[in-house]
Amino acid sequence: MTPIQFALIIALASLLAWIPFALIGARSRKAGTVTSGQLEVMPVSDITDVGRRKFLLRGVGFASLAFLGQFALASIDFLYPRLRGGFGSKISVGNADDLRAELGNREPKFIPDGRFYLTLYEGDPAEAADIPAYKAANVDVSGFMALYRKCVHLGCSVPYCPPSKWFECPCHGSKYSIHGEYREGPAPRSLDQFRAEVVDGELIVDTATIIAGAPRGTSTTQPQPEGSNCVSV
Question: What value does the mean pLDDT take over residues 32-53?
Answer without folding.
Answer: 58
